[in-house]
Amino acid sequence: MASSQNQNSIFQDYLPLMANKLGGDGLIGELCNGFNLLMDGEKGVITFDSLKKNSALLGLQDLSDDDLRGMLKEGDFDGDGALNQMEFCVLMFRLSPELMEESQFLLEEALLQEFKDY
After folding, report:
1. Which H or E element spans position 4?
2. 67 domain residue, yes or no
3. N or C: where does the chain have the smaller number of CB atoms within 10 Å of the terminal CB?
4. What does the alpha-carbon distance between residue 108 and residue 86 come to, in Å, rounded to a whole number?
5. Domain range holding 88?
6. Domain named EF-hand: which ranges (predicted)?
7. Which CATH number fits the domain that encloses residue 40?
8. Is 9 helix (H, G, I), strand (E, B) or coil?
C-alpha cells in the first residue's frame, strides 16, 4: 500500500484495500459516510471548522491547521472554500496513488476495447 509522509503525519492509503473488499458501490457508500462525518450539518459541506472539529473521528487529530486548509484548498474545485460531497470523493481518489493507477489502467483498457471495434 502506498504511503506518503510530511513533517507532521503519516498517511496510510487504505482506499485500494477498501475498493477491493467493498466493490465500487460499497466504496462510494463508505466515502459518503466519511463525508457525512466531516461535514457541517447545517451547511451540508465540509468547512475548515467542521474538518478541524470532526477530523479526530477519522484519526486525523494530529493534522495542523495548515494541513487541513491545504486539504480543503486541494479539493475545492468551485472556489467556495468548502468541499461538497463530489469534491470530497474526487479528492479521496486523487489522494490514493494506487487507486488512481488502477483507475487509469481500467480506463485505458476500456478505451482500447472501444476503439478496437472500429
Report:
1. strand 3-5
2. yes
3. C
4. 23
5. 14-115
6. 63-98
7. 1.10.238.10
8. coil
pLDDT digits (tens, 9 = 90+) for 36-57: 999 999 999 999 999 999 988 8
Q: Which grid coordinates are listed for 42?
A: 447545517
Whether the Cβ atoms of residue 97 and residue 14 lie closer than 8 Å to each other: no
Residues 6+ apart with CB under 8 A from 32: 85, 89
pTM above 0.70, yes or no: no
**Residue 32, CA distances (Å) to 65, 73, 92 in order:** 23, 19, 11
Cβ contacts of residue 75 below 8 Å, gap of 6+? 83, 87, 88, 90, 91, 94
Instruction: Identify the CA nearest to 91 among candidates 16, 40, 35.
Output: 35
Helix H or strand E segment including 62: none
Number of domains in the chain: 1
